[in-house]
Amino acid sequence: MRYYKRHVTNTWVSLKYSTAATMDPAEETPSMLWGLDPMFSAFARLYVRDILQMKESTQVPGIYFYNAHPIYKVDVLGTVVYKRERDDFFCYGVDDGTGVINCLCWKNDLLKEEGNPTKSGGKPSDGAEGGFDPARELEKLRQAQQSRCHLEIGEVLRVRGPVKTSRQQREIMASTYYKVNDPVMAVQIAWMMEVPQLYRQCYDKPPQLQPTATGDSSISSLSKATNTIKDFFKQKSVSRFRPYDVQDLLQPLISSQPPAASADQEPVAGPSACQQLRQLLKEALQILQDEGIVYRKVKSQDEVYHVTAHDTDLRMAVKDIIREDSKREKYAEKGCHILHILSAVRQRYSLNVSKAALELVLKSLECNSDIVSTSDSHYTVF
């Protein structure tokens, strides 16, 4: 993660950036399809740098686009680098290491009454001594909430809310915000590990919002191809196969006859049905490998794929590794971490076992009560 130099005054940071341009209407997805994207209804955990550079919609002001995903509310965790306070709101500058953004945090009624004494004057109620005192408990609640909402420079703030552009400046209108007590940086480390995964799995992948007009589109055919192969595994209990074993299953998904050309049109050259079938099979097998459903134990000219769910040798290898290594003093208390298991499997069984495939095996072993998961992706035997 790159860090940027900033000039910080006593209580204010000068944010100098040009407001991101609006989306090109020709590239923007119609607003009626935005609801098909899960990111549209979620608080997107984007880096501040990307929030500042998002393009605003030309159809609906206040909606922004990151990699064609429609976004209007975000979730940010960072360090307070400046603050302002007014009667009705706090304004915090939050730095997550990629940029600084204004966060406008409105005060609630309890915070506005900060200086007002309670009606009881802090005295216990007329009830028995040590009994429940509503005024005192309300005061405790106000103080606790005040401590979570009053932040100083250098403290960690988590803020959620919609993104707005005001006075040529991008900012977050906080709907929820609070101070994060993170003395050993556990929350920040967990955040830094989770956000890159969200980018890889969701944010950086283009949305598939356009409904397919026919069942012959590439996206629809690829989805049908992977589902067809998965159904074949379940029905036949296949443990290993070669590509030509499943190639014929995908034949109905390929149009063998090219579209007829009219009399005044020249025939258009394109891939043959055989080439389309091979390409579809290749893409489907790649998706199955990415999901860990299949893997190649040995990469050679003879393409042999193993089905993870039905590979008893892999299951036994993983179980033996956990049983043996859990006896070592290093892993006796919490068990073996998944990355340690993955490294051991690659050394003792196959270099080509992916983390996704290992996760499926671990899940299956846990369902059968062969192993048990502890905290933080650690596994041990009973």
Biggest beta-sheet profile = 5 strands, mixed, barrel
Determine the structural class based on helices, strands and strand pairing.
alpha+beta
In order across it, which strands form the biggest sheet?
4-5-6-8-7
Low-confidence stretches: 1-19, 115-125, 212-216, 256-263
Helix content: 25-40%
Instruction: Provide the residue-averaged pLDDT.
Output: 80
Quickly count the helices: 10
Terminal-residue CA separation: 41 Å
Rg computed from alpha carbons, rounded to a whole number of angstroms = 29 Å
User: What is the number of E strands?
Assistant: 15
> Strand percentage, roughly?
15-25%
Would you list the SSEs in sequence order as H and E?
Answer: HEEEEEEHHEEEHHEHHEEHEHHEE
* Structural shape: flat
Describe the 3D structure.
- With 382 residues, the chain is of the alpha+beta class.
- It has ten helices and 15 strands.
- Helix 8 (312-325) crosses helix 9 (338-348).
Which features characterize this protein?
three-stranded antiparallel sheet, 19% strand, flat, 15 strands, alpha+beta, 382 residues
Concise structural overview:
With 382 residues, the protein is an alpha+beta fold.
Mind sketching the topology for me?
Layout: H1 48-53, E1 55-56, E2 64-66, E3 69-71, E4 73-85, E5 89-95, E6 100-106, H2 109-112, H3 134-149, E7 156-166, E8 169-174, E9 176-180, H4 186-203, H5 218-236, E10 240-241, H6 243-247, H7 273-290, E11 294-295, E12 305-307, H8 312-325, E13 336-337, H9 338-348, H10 355-367, E14 372-373, E15 378-380
Parallel strand pairs: 6-8
Antiparallel strand pairs: 1-2, 2-3, 4-5, 4-7, 5-6, 7-8, 7-9, 10-12, 11-12, 13-15, 14-15
Helix pairs in contact: 5-7, 8-9, 8-10
